[in-house]
Design brief:
Structural class: mainly alpha
Strand content: under 5%
Radius of gyration: 18 Å
Number of helices: 10
Largest sheet: none
Oligomer: single chain
């Protein structure tokens, strides 16, 4: 097990891991297939090894810095997608009009933000590709940044803290690094599936009389 922990420490060690995680989290709003969650959990797993003395502390990222890095990159990615969609013009409008998923998300998001709530934004951060749909939908619908970005920040922080907690505590409880990482990833995917299920069951926006 020690060798396994050390191997994870080598993979996630050094300041470069922050740059890799930040780039992956920022870009996965456009490319949801990027393994941003895997990277965050693996780094947190290594940090748990350092906490128990199984990996040298200098070889792994700091937990708080890891959460801050992932949160900041998540918000920046949302903001980039939001601004691009805002300026997208007629071509993007036509693309959204052809996509029922984007159209419905746009309407739901507008209702949620108008009523002072943004739970949909937080849920979408966990659901597969949900972050992309919500960020692009908010920009294309020209929702106010002050209504969208605070919820984006809460969503990014929730996702980052949850992912780090899974990797950190999963390794402490299970002990075996790769098993702990696998179980943590299953829990992250389970949260995504649950978020997607809740979003699908969200009431359809009422039609105007």
């Amino acid at each position: 097990m020690l060798e396994s922990m050390e191997s994870v420490g080598l993979l996630t060690g050094g300041p470069w891991i922050y740059a890799v995680i930040a780039a992956s989290v920022l870009l996965d709003v456009f490319l949801p297939v990027l393994p941003s969650g895997v990277l965050v959990i693996a780094a947190a797993t290594a940090a748990a090894g350092a906490a128990t003395g199984q990996v040298a502390p200098h070889e792994v990222p700091d937990i708080l810095a890891l959460i801050l890095c992932a949160t900041t990159a998540s918000v920046l990615g949302d903001l980039v997608a939001y601004r691009l969609a805002w300026r997208g013009g007629a071509r993007l409008d036509r693309a959204i009009a052809r996509s029922r998923r984007l159209t419905v998300a746009q309407e739901r998001l507008g209702s949620a933000l108008a009523s002072g709530g943004g739970t949909l934004v937080v849920l979408a951060r966990f659901a597969p590709a949900g972050r992309s749909v919500v960020s692009l939908g908010a920009g294309a619908a020209h929702r106010r940044a002050r209504d969208f970005l605070p919820w984006s920040a809460l969503a990014g922080l929730s996702w980052a803290a949850y992912s780090v907690a899974l990797g950190y505590y999963g390794a402490q409880w299970l002990g075996t690094t790769w098993l702990a990482t696998g179980v943590s990833l299953l829990a992250l995917f389970g949260a995504g599936a649950g978020a997607a299920f809740i979003m699908r069951r969200h009431p359809e926006p009422a039609e105007a009389p």
